[in-house]
């Protein structure tokens, strides 16, 4: 089993032909952490949007509960309708409370995300500095290696020139070649010393980087585990809130159902009749009455509010009756029409 964190094992892997400056694995870890941070933001925004939906629904439901519903109804059905409106109001308030709880959970997620961001920022800055140092020292070492190799080639060439001119009678020229060979040897030895020193230095830099890299991977892995667990629990809590809201709504609606069970149809009808009754007998039929005879139907007595019957006047008086006095006109030519 590897002594390093799981993410470190992945993060330390580079292409076999890559050099010490390769950060492919580390970059993959950072990308994974950035994707996780983005997921936290997406879940946070989702919960805030859901809270806004719940809040709008709660306000609309509260407004609906204030509207007239069964105002003119009476008795048991009116009580049920009043309970229906009351519990609708309570449901709206419970949704409003749930929206607030959702915002609180979203706030916790935001704080968790910012806390991890600050912890990562410090570690990433430290690792970026080590990567620059490692890259700089590696470049310096590779440059010294090239210089060392070139000095070694110069030394070999100088030695070959001395060997080729060993039997030459020109002593001065041989001495000159020998002097160059000695100088080339000194230069190669100095380049070797510098190269070897840089290799030791880059080794130390690598050891320091590796030590901090392990620490960084341990922290990053811990953050990833905490993030996954926190997101899991956050969504779980969110679903529990939704489930609890369903239970709460059903309990409130159950109160309405209980009230409806007490609603008695016959009782409500009797209540209306007793409250608004105007009598227990219908008005009588309208009868025909003869104007001249004053006869009425013997079957039904006339209502008391009718006027007294009208009878015909008696016969005309007899003109031969001595008890009756009439006016006479002595003039035979008198005419009423004329005057």
TrEMBL record:
Keywords: Coiled coil. Residues 140-158 have a biased composition (Basic and acidic residues). The keyword Ligase does not apply. One of its GO terms (cellular component) is cytoplasm. InterPro entries: AH/BAR_dom_sf, F_BAR_dom, FCH_dom. Residues 300-310 have a biased composition (Pro residues). One of its GO terms (biological process) is actin filament polymerization. The keyword Coiled coil applies. Residues 124-174, 294-328 are annotated as: Disordered. GO terms for molecular function: actin filament binding. It comes from Sander lucioperca (Pike-perch). PROSITE patterns: F_BAR. This is Proline-serine-threonine phosphatase interacting protein 2. Residues 161-171 have a biased composition (Low complexity). It comes from the Eukaryota. Residues 10-268 form the F-BAR domain. SUPFAM superfamilies: BAR/IMD domain-like.
């Amino acid at each position: 089993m590897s002594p390093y964190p799981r993410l470190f094992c992945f993060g330390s892997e580079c292409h076999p032909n890559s050099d010490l400056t390769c950060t492919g694995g580390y970059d993959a870890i950072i990308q994974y952490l950035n994707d996780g941070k983005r997921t936290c933001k997406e879940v946070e925004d989702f919960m805030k949007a859901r809270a806004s939906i719940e809040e709008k629904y709660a306000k609309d439901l509260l407004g609906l509960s204030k509207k007239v519903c069964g105002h003119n109804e009476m008795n048991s059905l009116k009580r049920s309708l009043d309970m229906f409106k009351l519990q609708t109001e309570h449901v709206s308030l419970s949704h409003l409370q749930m929206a607030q709880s959702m915002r609180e959970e979203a706030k916790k997620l935001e704080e968790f995300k910012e806390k991890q961001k600050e912890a990562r920022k410090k570690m990433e800055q430290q690792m970026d500095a080590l990567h620059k140092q490692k890259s700089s020292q590696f470049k310096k070492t590779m440059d010294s290696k090239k210089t060392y190799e070139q000095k070694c080639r110069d030394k070999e060439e100088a030695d070959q020139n001395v060997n080729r001119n060993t039997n030459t009678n020109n002593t001065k020229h041989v001495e000159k070649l020998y002097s160059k060979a000695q100088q080339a040897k000194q230069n190669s030895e100095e380049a070797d010393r510098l190269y070897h020193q840089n290799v030791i230095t880059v080794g130390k830099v690598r050891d320091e980087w590796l030590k901090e890299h392990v620490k960084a991977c341990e922290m990053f892995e811990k953050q990833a585990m905490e993030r996954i667990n926190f997101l899991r629990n956050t969504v779980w809590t969110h679903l529990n809130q939704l489930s609890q809201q369903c239970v709460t709504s059903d309990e409130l609606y159950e109160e309405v159902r209980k009230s409806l069970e007490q609603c008695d149809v016959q009782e409500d009808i009797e209540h209306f009749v007793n409250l608004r009754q105007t009598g227990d007998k219908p008005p009588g039929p309208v009868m025909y009455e003869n104007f001249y005879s004053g006869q009425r139907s013997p079957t039904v007595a006339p209502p008391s509010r009718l006027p007294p019957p009208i009878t015909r006047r008696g016969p005309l008086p007899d003109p031969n009756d001595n008890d009756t006095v009439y006016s006479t006109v002595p003039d035979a030519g008198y005419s009423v029409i004329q005057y």
